[in-house]
Amino acid sequence: MLFWFLDFNSIQPEQYASLYSISIIFISSLYIIFGFTLKYLQLKVLEKKTTYVTANIVKGLVLMTLFFDSFESLYTRIFHFQLGTRSLINYHRDVVAGALYASTDTVSIFLERRKSWATTFHHIGVVLGYILLMYLEPLHPICEHLLAFGNMGILTSIVNFYLGLRFLVPQKNTVIIDILRQVAFVMYSFFWSTNLLVQIALVLNSIYHHYWVSLSIVPLLVVFIYDDVLLIKFLSKHNQNLQKH
User: Fold this and answer.
1) Of the candidates 119, 146, 144, which has an alpha carbon nearest to the alpha carbon of residue 130?
2) For residues 211 and 215, what is the distance between their CA atoms, to the nearest angstrom?
3) Closest C-alpha among 151, 157, 149, 155 to residue 221
4) Three-state SS string across the chain, please?
5) Domain residue spans in the chain?
6) d(CA 83, CA 86)
């Protein structure tokens, strides 16, 4: 419904900060609702994993609602690559998705306990990325890098479901989690590889058009890529263990 509205009334850049703030409030409320749901259904979760499960399930649910729009955006970015050719409405739709994505990581920074340092830096990088979106002009090459990464994160929301649900599903029903793990590994590997090619293409495009300032985003991209590689290794290791049984 939100994206349908934006087709006719595109959000303006000066409203990005308000959009981000509203998204944080919305995500925080989902944390509270999910926490009460766990207690109401009397689902047993290790106390030290409660915030971890909540963070991943909430993020998975939110990003899943953005899946088809992000797929369309990534398709457009690949097959209509020339920077500046995408309409502002499509760009604003990406920013709305980016606000929701960034807000899930923002809330996780403060509410999710016992995160790895790589995940923490990834979350901080996402927040910094959205701040750049707020202050750079629309369709800026740096923004294209960030939004491409955001699309990839949204398209792989099934990974968040797996990470959270593995602590909720009883041991006797692990076949469900095993299937989810394998699907998550395949989807994450595919979209991560696709996104990496897009990122390389964007860097080469910036070099070709002498957008040297755009290369300043590369260190932040490295942080994202490193954390993604760790996650792929984690999923791969669990898939290999599954095939041995």
Assistant:
1) 146
2) 8
3) 149
4) CHHHHHCCCCCCHHHHHHHHHHHHHHHHHHHHHHHHHHHHCCCCCCHHHHHHHHHHHHHHHHHHCCHHHHHHHHHHHHHCCCCCCCCHHHHHHHHHHHHHHHHHHHHHHHHCCCCCHHHHHHHHHHHHHHHHHHHCCCCCHHHHHHHHHHHHHHHCHHHHHHHHHCCCCCHHHHHHHHHHHHHHHHHHHHHHHHHHHHHHHHHHHHHHCCCHHHHHHHHHHHHHHHHHHHHHHHHHHHHHHHHHC
5) 12-244
6) 7
Q: 84-94: per-residue pLDDT in tens?
A: 455 666 777 78
Q: Residue 219 CB: number of other CB atoms within 10 A?
A: 9
Buried-state track 38-50, b at ≥16 Cβ within 10 A, e below 16: beeeeeeeeeebb
Q: Tell me the residue type at 187.
A: M
Does residue 100 contact residue 153 with C-beta atoms inside 8 Å?
no
List, for residues 92-139, the tens digit of each pLDDT value. Answer: 778 888 899 999 999 999 988 878 888 899 999 999 999 998 888 877
53: closest CA among 66, 68, 64, 39? Answer: 39
Q: Is 42 left (phi over 0), alpha (psi -120 to 50) or beta?
A: left
Entry pTM: 0.85
- The answer to whether residues 181 and 242 touch, using CB atoms and an 8 Å cutoff, is yes
Q: Could you tell me the CA-to-CA distances from 75 to 80, 81, 161 in Å, in that order?
A: 8, 9, 24
Can you tell me the distance from the alpha carbon of 144 to that of 77, in angstroms, rounded to the nearest whole number? 9
